[in-house]
Write a structure and sequence with these properties.
Layout: H1 14-30, H2 39-52, H3 57-74, H4 81-95, H5 103-130, H6 143-177, E1 179-180, H7 184-208, H8 213-238, E2 245-246
Antiparallel strand pairs: 1-2
Helix pairs in contact: 1-2, 1-3, 1-7, 2-3, 3-4, 4-5, 5-6, 6-7, 7-8
């Protein structure tokens, strides 16, 4: 997992907290709860999850960041990722200034800042690169263009996000771990959706298993199915030539 650049799926990170918060919001919206009041349920539950996973530093950072963003809905404030990121960093550093010198803190905020700053630029570029003829109305496009639009959008958007995160983490990973993992750009396109499926199935097992044991067992087997293919995909990616390179610590410049 280290050599394929997918080790982050094992940390209780922003990815996990955001996925759990998103799943909770989706369930609450199905139950007809207004979006503005979802934070009243979501924020206590993600803090409960953080406590249940042992109050890891990465989980606390992620939960503070997610709480700041979700609390904006309650206050009816427009979302601004850089603003929310700065507020979360300020709260964490007021509580424990030494976090600034920890690799986890630097990686967390560097990656999210990179997503906020580079994400829109890469997204605009991929739209220009892969757009169909804008002068042709949708009803006159051939069927193959309609069939390919969603898969192309999904793959190119995922790749742009992976590239933005990789560029943000690149100097820190090289500095702390002396690794360069270009294969992670492709590996994360497969491993991250699989980890999302595993997490969703595990949450389903926790929520439904005590009441419907058969459904809980089905969720457990489904979670292992996703985990098995995460391992296989990471092994395949790590074995690719030039997929992982050992590098020296880069200079400050």
């Amino acid at each position: 997992f280290m050599r394929s650049g997918t080790m982050h799926v094992f940390a209780i990170s922003g990815l996990h907290i955001a996925l759990i918060a998103g799943m909770l919001v989706a369930v609450l919206r199905v139950c007809r709860m207004p979006r503005r009041f979802c934070p009243l349920v979501v924020i206590p539950l993600i803090w409960l999850y953080t406590g249940a996973t042992g109050w890891q530093a990465s989980a606390i950072r992620s939960t503070i960041m997610t709480s700041v963003i979700v609390a904006g809905w309650l206050l009816a404030r427009p979302a601004d990722l850089v603003n929310s990121l700065s507020a979360a960093a300020f709260l964490i550093l007021v509580w424990e200034p030494q976090q600034l010198f920890q690799a986890g803190f630097q990686l967390s905020f560097a990656v999210v800042l990179s997503l906020a700053l580079l994400g829109p630029i890469l997204d605009a570029f991929r739209k220009r690169l892969f757009q169909f003829d804008p002068w042709v109305p949708d009803e006159l496009r051939p069927a193959w263009q309609h069939r390919l639009r969603k898969p192309i959008d999904y793959l190119t958007t995922s790749f742009a996000v992976s590239l933005a995160a990789w560029l943000g983490s690149l100097p820190l990973v090289a500095g702390y771990f002396n690794l360069l993992t270009p294969v992670s750009l492709l590996a994360n396109l497969v491993v991250v959706p699989l980890s999302s499926g595993a997490l969703a199935c595990s949450l389903g097992s926790l929520a439904i298993g005590p009441f419907v044991p058969v459904a809980g067992e089905l969720f457990n087997h489904s979670a292992w199915f996703f985990m098995f293919w995460m391992i296989r995909a990471s092994e395949w990616a790590a074995a690719l030539p030039a997929g992982c390179l050992h590098v020296g610590t880069p200079s400050p410049l």
